[in-house]
Amino acid sequence: MTEEKKPTRKKIMATKVMRKIMADYFYELDSASKSTDKKVAWCSSVGPAEILRALGFYVYFPENHAAMLGATRMATDMIPYANAIGYSPDICSYLTSDIGAYLKKVTPLTRAYEGIEGLPEPDVLVFNTNQCRDIQDWFGWYAKEFNVPLMGIHTHRGIKDVTEAHVPSIARQMEEMIRPLEKISGNSFEMSELNRVLSLSRECSNLWKKVLDTAAAVPSPITFFDGTIHMGPAVVLRGTQQAVDYYRELLAELEERIKNSEGAVEGERFRLYWEGMPIWGRLRDHSDLFSGQQTCVVASTYCNSWIFSDFAPSDPFNSMAKAYTELFIVRSDETKERYIKQMIEFFKIDGMVYHDAKTCPNNSNNRYGMPQRVEEETGVPSLVINGDLNDLRCLSDEQAKTNIEAFIEQLEENG
Ligand code: SF4
Description:
Helices cover 51% and strands 10% of the residues. It has 415 residues and is an alpha/beta fold. It has a four-stranded parallel sheet, with helices on both faces. Bound molecules: iron/sulfur cluster. Iron/sulfur cluster is lined by residues 92, 94-95, 131-132, 134-135, 360, 362-363, 389.
């Protein structure tokens, strides 16, 4: 084993700008929630945010809030409050920590943003089951709590190829939302506005993809851990000019790094792919652990989840239906494996790390033999880490550290 080095992960200068636009976003939501004429919609992270924005809603994403609970290490203590009202510790810890925090009347927003006292209360909640069933239960609980309408798109799951058997049925569900949403928002739907928002979303998505693709450079100018922070605007501000402007700036910085051969991790020796969700409460520790071994986790499926290459403003409903169904999480193992193999090649991956997140089977892709099959076909070794996105009780830090170090040692021996 090489001696552990002082962790060095190069800071991204654009982070300051991102913090500012995220702050503006939350202050805007807060003021919309306090006003009588502006309406707030809660939306699932890969839900039809573009439709909501086009109707003038201020859009809030509970999953983003749950990730903040995780990253601030508040989540684990909140989970028992949701367990006490019947939500099992075995189900989605985004759901349990978020509902628990609501019951306990705490939110990381009050700590991060002076003057914000609580969540922006919803006028409507809109989900898409393309990712899982938990999202429907989660939003359903809040709909009852706030006594506001709950609307959902019910999507096919485990799809090998996205075909005509899937797209029109989802597009129709999206169209059927317009009339009730018009009533709630008080605004009438304009196709030109949806086209405008979708164009911005598509641009944001293209730029975000370019940002993540810079990691194909050797050394990589960005790590997976940077990606989990900088994906914020792609999640909560897609469909806005601010997100587009931000990713232009970030991309320019990363391209400059490539030009100067500056890696995000000093002395990059190995390049890993992270499959699954981040362990939010351990982002810094994991980043340091890998950097300390001169190993860069260059890419992940997770950060790529906000790339919607099929968005076409000329055919909004069908293209949104297609884009939101083409996502990795919605697909069969056969399709997922094909995708991962492409990523291994594109990002020049030396090893795979699969995160088996105890409470999210939907984002844990190691449970049905995938690591073994991919390893056999590509020769790229893999490691499975047991943990969770938000419930830190599911993680053994010591074991994860030992396993990661042993894995890197194995990569060294493989030469
Ligand atoms: S995909 Fe996983 S983390 Fe996301 S809401 Fe569903 S169960 Fe929770």
